[in-house]
UniProtKB/TrEMBL annotation:
The keyword Endoplasmic reticulum applies. This is Transmembrane emp24 domain-containing protein 7. Its main location: membrane. The gene is Tmed7. It is a single-pass type I membrane protein. GO terms for biological process: protein transport. One of its GO terms (cellular component) is endoplasmic reticulum-Golgi intermediate compartment membrane. The chain crosses the membrane at residues 181-203. It is found in: Cytoplasmic vesicle, COPI-coated vesicle membrane; Cytoplasmic vesicle, COPII-coated vesicle membrane; Endoplasmic reticulum membrane; Endoplasmic reticulum-Golgi intermediate compartment membrane. Belongs to the EMP24/GP25L family. Residues 1-29 form the signal peptide. Potential role in vesicular protein trafficking, mainly in the early secretory pathway. Appears to play a role in the biosynthesis of secreted cargo including processing and post-translational modifications.
């Protein structure tokens, strides 16, 4: 059975080297990781035949509150799926007609934070390992074992992809936290330095001699 993040393996390099990755198989599937700048919108297009089952899955890996807007439209512009500020989600549909389907990711609500988004768009289903047409006998024991191993390996790939995404997201959060701690430490050091210098000058003023001026008035 398919896992939560698609059937193809996406090797995610560590941020900020997350670049474009694309894989295509018999049942056309695209896995892409891309940068989505602030106040930006990115759309993708796919030619789909009527009656084809499709699945769109996405997850925000880095940036802000890890959320984007997602919208999916059919060739007539009818909205099939629309979610606002989602961190991750999955949507499965069957194409109602032939044509170009459009799905977009939007970060227009963010004014200064860019995002890194991963998505997996599957069109159709994987062909069977041993096609049943032109067969006069049932699967042999070895063929059945191969099918079971094949399905198990697909599940392993699914979970590997899922954990790689979680790893990339966790690394991004850790680096962001480390940067904040570093800036906070620098700020504290500067404040302590300023306060220390101020106290030295204040104490010095307490012990400095005050000059007095005496004026004689002649008679």
């Amino acid at each position: 059975a398919a896992g939560p993040w698609g059937r193809r393996l996406l090797l995610l390099p560590p941020p900020p080297l997350l670049l474009l990755a694309l894989a295509a198989c018999a049942a056309r599937a695209s896995e892409i990781t891309f940068e989505l700048p602030d106040n930006a919108k990115q759309c993708f297009y796919e030619e789909i035949a009527q009656g084809t089952k499709c699945t769109l899955e996405f997850q925000v890996i880095t940036g802000g509150h890890y959320d984007v807007d997602c919208r999916l439209e059919d060739p007539d512009g009818i909205v099939l799926y629309k979610e606002m500020k989602k961190q991750y989600d999955s949507f499965t549909f069957t194409a109602s007609r032939n044509g170009t389907y459009k799905f977009c990711f939007s970060n227009e609500f963010s004014t200064f934070t860019h995002k890194t988004v991963y998505f997996d768009f599957q069109v159709g289903e994987d062909p069977p390992l041993f096609p049943s047409e032109n067969r006069v006998t049932a699967l042999t024991q070895m063929e059945s074992a191969c099918v079971s191993i094949h399905e198990a390996l697909k599940s392993v790939i699914d979970y590997q992809t899922h954990f790689r995404l979680r790893e990339a997201q966790g690394r991004s959060r850790a680096e962001d936290l480390n940067t904040r701690v570093a800036y906070w430490s620098i700020g504290e050091a500067i404040i302590l330095l300023v306060v220390s210098i101020g106290q030295v000058f204040l104490l010095k003023s307490f012990f400095s001699d005050k000059r007095t001026t005496t004026t004689r008035v002649g008679s």
